[in-house]
Design a protein that fits this description.
This protein has 13 helices and no strands. The chain has 214 residues and is mostly helical.
């Protein structure tokens, strides 16, 4: 993994999000209307590191409430660190609410040896390829990590169903765009695709009355 500082724009403060939102409003036909509905977009930065990625795995295919409960039990049992997960018995992990599949995923992450500090300096494509090499970490999880844990301004997660549905409503599409199609659509929002994603999640929340992401 290369050294030095990453040259990509990093979102660290609300002012960065506001700058991206203003650019989108000025350079697209639809984000001005979106922002009139959503108001200012949230920062939504999270810590980076092992526990954040482990939380993303825990959250896969379960409700927000269930994911929070499982994470709480894992934290209470000191099972959100690689060294404790790698040596934990099945019974201890199962008692926290993990399926056998997620036990396998978390153990794979625990022994992956990912240099999380190094990811801060790596280009986004390298972040995604490094994370998706771990069993149980898909492209969506890797892109969400790059977006929120690393603050990358120009990353998008077109596999996200809420983003697909938000884009369908915002753009007046007849059907929800699939991942490949939405990845192409999102090119028009570069270099602020992560801000566009924040906008679409907020828009989805207003349209559907429910949150699109943890």
């Amino acid at each position: 993994m290369g050294g030095g500082a990453v040259t990509e724009r990093i979102i660290t403060h609300e002012e960065d999000v506001a700058e991206g939102a203003a650019w989108l409003a000025a350079n697209t036909d639809h984000f001005g209307r979106l922002l009139e509905i959503t108001g200012p977009l949230p920062l939504r930065r999270t810590p980076d590191g092992f526990s954040q990625l482990a939380s993303a795995i825990v959250s896969q295919q379960v409700s927000t409430a269930s994911a929070r409960a499982i994470r709480g039990r894992l934290e209470a049992a000191d099972l959100m660190r690689p060294e404790t997960i790698a040596t934990a018995e099945d019974e201890a992990l199962r008692a926290c609410g993990l399926s056998r599949q997620k036990m396998r995923y978390l153990r794979a992450l625990a022994v992956s040896g990912i240099d999380f500090d190094g990811l801060r300096r790596a280009p986004t494509h390298e972040v995604v390829s490094t994370l998706t090499a771990v069993t149980g970490v898909g492209v969506w999880t890797a892109e969400i990590y790059a977006m929120f844990a690393l603050g990358r301004a120009d990353v998008f997660a077109p596999g996200d169903l809420a983003l697909q549905e938000g884009a369908r409503h915002l753009l007046g599409l007849e059907e929800r765009p699939k991942e490949r199609a939405l990845r192409e659509i999102a090119l028009q929002w570069s270099p602020w695709r992560a801000v566009a994603a924040r906008g679409l999640w907020e828009y989805y929340h207003h349209v559907k009355g429910r949150e699109g992401i943890l």
